[in-house]
Amino acid sequence: MVKAPPQSVVEELVAVLLAGSSTEMFLAEAAAAAARRLGLPPPDGCSIAVSRRRRPVLAVCTSGLEGLHAGGEYGPGSPGGVVLGGGPDVVVADLAASHRWTALSGAADHGIRAFAAVALPLEGDRGVLSCYAGSAYAFGPAEMAAVHAVAAETAKALRLALLLDAQTNRAANLQSALESRTVVDLAAGIIMGQNGCSQQAAIDILRSVSNSRNIKIRNVAAGVVAAVSDRVSTHFDE
């Protein structure tokens, strides 16, 4: 029997997308796929982070690296953060002999000796692939060429994942805005009926209460509606 050729990184990750995985789950699979391709089984491994417009950085890692991930690997001044911010690749040949990156101090305590972080070539968003190895000098020229190749392949599928993620986020924001507008309109109608005022005057009343109490106008409106109805439900068919 003729064996099917192994899947490429792109094919493997597109299959994950077609399965309907969340963006976080996709990144987890992408990090795991990168670790397999680069020969970095636990306790070695990879992590991936993406910086999306007006949204928090999303970062995931392979099994066994959770403690390092929680240490702020992608924070300001960290090697991953530098690359994520548009800086050059970061390669640390031997963590035991290098003290430049304090964010990686915990990695050495966990038996990690070498580290590499490279940018994921995305469009609009920014991403970084970080690799960890238990052997010093694990990321020489040949290994870094492989890291860049995997990063390029990963980015192809990641661009699609982030496009879908952005569309989903926009749809959720629109849904929230529509529901918020409905509640505000209902509350304005109630105030108009109670006070015999115009719609604009009713909106101004809601806005004044919102500002004076430092509460979102939607929450103020919901309180007005709740005062005259036990339950208000807003629903929009997709």
Automatic annotation (TrEMBL):
Pfam families: ANTAR. Keywords: Transcription, Transcription regulation. GO terms for molecular function: RNA binding. SMART domains: ANTAR. PROSITE patterns: ANTAR. Residues 164-225 form the ANTAR domain. It comes from the Bacteria. This is ANTAR domain-containing protein.
